[in-house]
DNA sequence: TCTTCTTTGCGTTATTATGACACAAAGTAA
DNA sequence: TTACTTTGTGTCATAATAACGCAAAGAAGA
């Protein structure tokens, strides 16, 4: 190993997470209330430093497990944020990621580092510490773009779901209203969901068609090109 | 400042650059032949470590200046590569970027760290050191996607250009052939180039229409949706 | 049980976007 | 002068899309 190699002085490396949760037709983001400086008592995204042996995916899972109590998520790398003054403690490069979870499946707990953990609707995000407002903004934009050509978002639904539920998810994430019949046609033409015969428990007398994600989909890409009525 | 902060042991941080050059209707990538281990005498992407006070953009410019002799580029962040064994010297996270340049405008020189610097056509890239083959592959894919909805690639042309020149660039980057008349219609409908009256010098008796990039374009996004004939 | 309202599945139609291709004018080369 | 190539500008048949109708089935209320 190059002897100079580990004496090379360079910035610290961290990750920050934008955790999206979809529940009762509302899209939220998970925020931590900081117990310590900087930004003590302020809201920030969950994050943490990368340890020597960890991959980015591992550090994201570690943060979710220790700070929030959940892990094993759909995870996507977003962007690296490098402004020199973004962290008052020193030079930190943050590789931001975002995840999607169904809040009903987890019990969120504040880890020992935080006063509180709370879901905030995406249109009611408070001022955030560091450059996390910008990170959140970019994550929202990426999610909106990605859902139009990639079957993201199924992590937020049950294994089987109705067409109405799927449409509500799209309308919520994209923040638009979509014509019910055109949405159905485009989603089915895209071929990434399948009709399933099984009725869902808990729905007594309703029999709307139930669908599930088509995991055998050849190409993992399509073009929804959704637009709203009028 | 947190006293623990700078004693935190974490991976080194580097950038790698995929430098695309377009010249004589051929798309190439700039590669370095390494003078030192690891991968001595092997081809790799240009890259370097991030210094404490540098932004990502600054380190990219420094690498281009010192290793290749050019700077001030169109630059886009691509992705962070974090495989634990990607660098045999130790743990290095690389934040890959890609750039577009017109090779005619620069004289490429091998910096003191490299045996040689050479352009390779994108379909004749040799085996690369580290994980640079994968980085190159992702950069190519990103460039192909991006050019369909964002006016990238104008860095590779002169300030004014003919429709045929612009189409050749698209055909080269996308590696498809496009119907001349449909391409013209879509590009003009997108509204991101303008007709300019000025004739270009050096073209004596030819007067094809000359266009230039519309810098006043409101939204910096469109949808080309180009497809090839037949 | 009867009536009313909502939800859901499955259509149709007018408009627009797209792919394929024709043609003439002007420059180029022989 | 005569091909040949390049460039600008169309047309047209087809496909994709947005907007919307309608009937069947459940839900809700009397």
From TrEMBL, chains A, B:
Gene3D superfamilies: Nucleoside Triphosphate Pyrophosphohydrolase, Winged helix-like DNA-binding domain superfamily/Winged helix DNA-binding domain. Residues 10-143 form the Nudix hydrolase domain. InterPro entries: NUDIX_hydrolase-like_dom_sf (IPR015797), NUDIX_hydrolase_dom (IPR000086), WH-like_DNA-bd_sf (IPR036388), WH_DNA-bd_sf (IPR036390), WHD_NrtR (IPR054105). This is 8-oxo-dGTP diphosphatase. It comes from Pedobacter steynii.
